[in-house]
Write a structure and sequence with these properties.
The chain contains 21 helices and no strands. It is globular and about 65 Å long. The protein is mainly α. Helices cover about 75% and strands about 0% of the residues.
């Protein structure tokens, strides 16, 4: 329990540094998040054991990860022995994830997947506080009621809760992302060397959870320097704004092209996508059979990329979840608990997406430019999953940008007028009708 206790202490330390009025608000939303998460965990674990056990996991990658961790705990491997074992099994690129989870287990009295899930839940509470601190570091004058709205949507987000009660690496990655973004803000505001060191340490660790991600963090650091240090985006003249935006886009394209991970994906897209889609078809995975068969018959890489981008950004929708029977996914078990949590975020996600796009097009201002590194991180993730698997429709991959959309949803409340709200409502009606028809055809 030492690792979990450490994160709890860090959580309380950060809360203690927040002003009293906001501190009580944060505590209230953390309690809400904890209650929902722990109740969901109890119901999901009960369903898993009633279904088939799977050692307390939902199956798929979570089960494979747990089997490796269980072996290490059973034979009491040292950290070095465990590291060698991970490399032997062919997982050197995500060894930090395994070592972190292993440390959680060996420092706990109860060595079960439930402990790892509780650790994830504690990390989520830290993420909530970090999101608050990150917003305040950029928008110090943002009204308290809008912050309340943002925190409420995050702490009740079904996708975040469902991911936390599975044994996956996505919660750790999300924590690293917000810890890094906040550290970067602190560095540029206070010239804190500790914050800068923290940023690069986290970037290094992320590289051994998601391969090559250190290049993305270096890219974000460069963009932050361009925005803040050189103040390119602060001009009020439209032409200079456009020049600044085009310059950042140019730098982004060059950086993306030079990142080895992206280059590998560009060179091996068809091979990777075909192999993964073929595996999904052979396993009958997730109802993607008709979609992947349809896409595999088209050899145009741009067509595949286009479909992948649509899937990554706009899907899945609640209609597929509603139409698919519980247990239809043969590769993992989600249960009724997982289905309810999926629906909780799937009805919120499209609305937040439409509002985000609308805000960027019509209300994006000088005060919002400090969010560009975060936006670019999400853009890189969208591009990555658009090349892989013909797009990433899994909710756990969308966590970074659903939180981004929610932040801007909260910000928009201080700008949108009645006309804007009616227009957004109509766009959402069209969106839901369109995805309903797509959902019926099982092409999601």
């Amino acid at each position: 329990m030492l690792i979990i206790a450490g994160f709890i202490i860090l959580l309380f330390y950060r809360i203690s540094k927040i002003k009293y009025k906001h501190r009580m608000m944060i505590i209230k939303y953390i309690i809400i998040s904890l209650v929902i998460s722990l109740v969901s965990l109890w119901f999901l674990q009960k369903e898993i054991f009633l279904h088939n056990g799977l050692d307390g996991t939902i199956g798929t990658d979570a089960y494979r990860y747990w089997v490796i961790l269980k072996y290490a705990v059973t034979y009491k491997l040292s950290i070095k022995e465990f590291n060698d074992y991970i490399i032997f099994l062919g997982y050197p690129n995500i060894k930090f994830f395994f070592i972190f989870e292993y440390l959680v287990l060996i420092t706990s009295v109860i060595k079960t997947p439930v402990i790892l899930k509780i650790c994830n839940i504690v990390l989520v509470q830290n993420i909530i506080v970090l999101v608050y601190l990150y917003i305040r570091s950029i928008d110090i004058n943002l009204n308290k009621k809008y912050i309340k709205f943002i925190l409420l949507l995050i702490c009740t987000n079904g996708g975040l809760i469902l991911t936390s009660i599975r044994v996956f690496k996505d919660i750790i990655l999300l924590y690293i992302l917000f810890e890094s973004l906040y550290s970067l803000q602190i560095f540029f505001k206070k010239r804190s060397v500790i914050a800068l060191i923290t940023y690069f340490i986290l970037a290094y660790f992320s590289n051994y959870i998601r391969p090559k991600s250190i290049y993305i963090y270096l890219f974000i650091f460069l963009v932050q320097i361009i925005i803040i240090k050189f103040s390119i985006m602060k001009s009020k003249k439209l032409k200079q704004k456009l020049v600044g935006i085009l310059f950042i886009i140019l730098i982004s394209c060059i950086a993306l092209y030079r990142i080895p991970f992206i280059s590998e994906l560009l060179n091996k897209t068809q091979e990777i996508a075909i192999n993964d889609a073929t595996n999904e078809i052979s396993e009958g995975y997730g109802g993607y059979l008709s979609e992947n068969t349809y896409i595999l018959n088209n050899n145009n890489i741009f067509f595949r990329f286009g479909i992948g981008t649509l899937r990554t950004i706009f899907f899945p929708t609640p209609f597929k979840t509603l139409f698919t029977p519980v247990g239809y996914n043969v590769s993992f078990f989600e249960g009724i608990t997982g289905r309810v949590l999926e629906l909780m975020w799937q009805f919120v996600y499209p609305v937040s997406l439409i509002i985000f796009i609308y805000y960027i097009l019509f209300y994006f201002s000088e005060n919002d430019y400090k969010y560009i590194p975060y936006i670019l991180f999400c853009l890189i993730q969208v591009l990555t999953y658009s090349f892989m698997y013909f797009g990433g429709a899994q909710l756990r991959w969308k966590l970074p940008y659903i939180i981004l959309f929610i932040i801007f949803w909260g910000k928009c409340n201080q700008y949108f007028n009645r006309k804007d709200k009616i227009l957004i409502f109509m766009i959402n009606i069209v969106y839901f009708l369109g995805t309903y028809l797509w959902g019926v055809s099982y092409l999601l």
